[in-house]
Amino acid sequence: MTAEIIAIGSELLTPFHQDTNSLYLTDQLERLGIAVVQKTVVGDQPDRLSQAFADALKHADLVIGMGGLGPTADDRTREAVAGLLNRKLEHNAEVAALIEQRFRARGKRMPEVNLRQARVPEGADWLPNDNGTAPGLWLTHEEKKIILLLPGPPHELKAMFEEHCLPRLRHLAPKQAFASKVLKVVGLTESEVEELIGPIYREISNPETTVLAAPGQIEIHVRATGSDTAEALRRSEALAGRLESVLGEVVFSSGPENLEQVVGLYLMMRGATLAVAESCTGGLLGQRLTSVPGSSRYFLGGVVCYSDKLKTQLIGVPLSLIKRKGAVSAEVAESLAKGVRRRIRSALGLSITGIAGPEGGTPDKPVGTVFIALADARRVKSEKHRFLGDRERIRWQATQAALSLLRRKLHK
Fold this sequence. Notes:
The chain is α/β, with parallel strands linked by helices. It folds into three domains: 2-172, Molybdenum Cofactor Biosythetic Enzyme, Chain A (3-Layer(aba) Sandwich), CATH 3.40.980; 177-253, Alpha-Beta Plaits (2-Layer Sandwich); 259-411, Alpha-Beta Complex (Maf protein). The chain has 13 helices and 17 strands. It is elongated, with a radius of gyration of 28 Å. The relative contact order is 0.08.
C-alpha cells in the first residue's frame, strides 16, 4: 500500500511557513507498513489543487491532503476534490450544529461563513474535530483508492488522525513492516563512500540504501521491508553490517548518537580527561563537547585564543614559532595542543587553528585551511585540512574533524 501526502496552502510556498505535518504522518504511516512514495506542496489555486490530487491518485493507494478546510474564501480543498470526483457538496446539519456549538461554548455567535465547513462531498464520511471547526473527510474513490482530507493546524491534524484515521487504516494496511539502520561516516566524501559501498548495495533492492551528505559527515540510510518488524530489522542489520565492514573505522555510529556523544562515551570508558584550545572555531568545539549531559566527567575546559598574544600568554606558544611558521600551521597547532594539556592538566589536549574566511587567505594558505592537533603525555599528532564553504560550514567541519581525530585516538 502506497501513500502520497499533499500539503496545501499558498503560505507554504513562501519562506515564512514550513510543513511539519508530513513528517508526523510519514512516521505514522510507516509504522503501519504504508510506504510514502511522494510529498507535494501546492497553493490554494483550484486548478492546481485538482491536478495535484489527480496526479496522486494515479500512483498512490492513499492520498492525504492537509489544509484548506477552513471557512475563508481561500480554503478550497473540499471544493477541488469534490469537483475532481464529480461529487456534489451537501450541507450536513450535524456538522453545522457541532460548529455552532463550539462557538457557543466560547460565548460567541457563529459567523455565517463557517457553514462552508459543513459542506460534505457526496458519499464521504466526515471526521469530528475536537480542537477546531474544520471536520476531516474520508472518501473512497473507485473502490480501492482512499482520500483523507485533514485540517492544517498540527494539533488538530494529529488528534484527528490518531483517533479517527489510524484505527481504520490498521485494518486496511498490508502485513508489512519497515526497519531502518543509519551508518554515520566521518572523514570521507559522499563519492568516496559510494565507491566503497556502491558495488554492494546497488545489487540489492530490499533493503533500499540512500547515501546523504551533511557538513562534515555522510549518512547511509538502509531501509528494509518485511512481513513483520523482526524480519525487516534482520534485513536492514544484515546489509548495514556488510557496509560497515567495508567502511571500517570511518563509521563512528550506527545509532542516533552524534560525534560528540560518541567521543564522550570513549573518554568515559578510558577514564581520560580533555582540554581544548581553539582559534578559528571560537568556542564551537567546547560548546559541542559540553552539549552532552555528563560531559563534566571528562571535559575540564578550554581556551579560545583568537589572537597571537593570547596563544602565547595563555597557552605558552612561543612567539618566535608563530612568527616563523604562522599562526595557522601544524607546528602552532601542536604547540597549542601540548600547551593546553599542560596548563589545564588534562590527559589529552586538542587544538584547532585555521582560516574560516571569508577573508584572510593567502595562495599558500587559502580560506578553509585548518590545522588540528591532539596531544597526550608522550606524543602529539597534527592534521592539515582544506574545507570548502562559507564561514560557518568551515568552522563546523573543523570541529567535526577535530572530534574525529580524537575518536580515532580513543578507538584504538
